Amino acid sequence: MPETLALSWRQYRLERRMFWRNPSAAFFNFVLPLLFLAAGGAILSGSQRDLNKLVPAIAGMSVMSTTFTALAYNIVFLRERGVLKRIRGTPLPTISYFGGVAANAVTNTALQIVIVVAAGRLIFGIGWPPHVATLIVFVLVGVVCFAALGVAFAHAIPNFESTAAYVNAVFLPVVFVSFYVFDSSSAPGFVRTIADALPLTPLIEGLSSAMVAGAHTPSHLDALAVIGLWGVFGLYFAVRGFSWEQSRT
After folding, report:
1. Overall number of domains in the chain
2. Residue 34: which domain range?
3. Which of 7, 9, 46, 181 has the most other CB atoms within 10 Å of its CB?
4. Cα–Cα distance between 206 and 87 in angstroms, integer?
5. Do the Cβ atoms of 154 and 162 come closer than 8 Å?
6. pTM above 0.70?
7. Which has the closest alpha carbon to 238: 127, 153, 119?
8. Considering the domain boundaries, does residue 246 fall inside one?
């Protein structure tokens, strides 16, 4: 166990170095959500109520971008370039490799959430999160859920050149529908039903209740149950369909 943990730590350090050397990864993980936050903040600067909704919504999107989007890109790239196959042939334990990858995703998410929370406090006047424990729980559950879904979704992407099209075909509609339902009380019933069944909407609602004083979500347990079910679904297909070798297409 000590050797496995040491190898996981070394893999984690390697993942951090590779992340900062990849401009596209830094953009999708940090810059893109902050651009949405800055643009939304500029448009909604005259309404504190709208800003109170914007910040947790961007925090939820940040969780999805640093896990689902990043892992889908990385897994496909490493698989199609033969890197995963070479890693499989080394003495590095599988648990140490995935431990380092998972810790890297958690670190990126934590950094992004800290940045969003600080921006909400210092720029948008929201205040510090009144329920830190709730915030941590929802972030952790969201990370596990979207990380598992990202790995599972990578199995459906045939090659790296099509990764952007596949990922954006899921990421952008989910963000749009979830933001629309979270912000609008007049959303059509069928749209609200779809959004409530997706993992991002309950995650945003949970983050809102944790980050904004006076915010209300119908039930933390209901929201966590939806996210958890998607997480189980993702974990099942992530493990079942995982391949160390390139697609034969």
Report:
1. 1
2. 2-240
3. 181
4. 38
5. no
6. yes
7. 153
8. no
Q: CB-based contacts of 3: which residues, under 8 Å, 6+ apart?
A: none
Has residue 245 been placed in a domain? no
b (16+ CB within 10 A) / e for 130-157: ebeebbeebbebbbbbbbbbbbbbbbeb
- What CA–CA distance (Å, rounded) separates 73 from 202? 25
Q: Is residue 191 part of a domain?
A: yes
Q: How many helices (H) and strands (E) does the chain have?
A: 12, 0
pLDDT tens-place string over residues 221-231: 888 999 999 99
249 located within any domain: no
Q: Which residues are CB-contacts of 65 (< 8 A; sequence separation ≥ 6)? A: 28, 29, 32, 33, 112, 171
Which residue has tokens 């959430």?
Answer: 113
C-alpha distances out from residue 74 to 40, 69, 79, 83, Å? 29, 9, 8, 11
pLDDT tens-digit readout, 155-175: 999 888 899 899 999 999 999
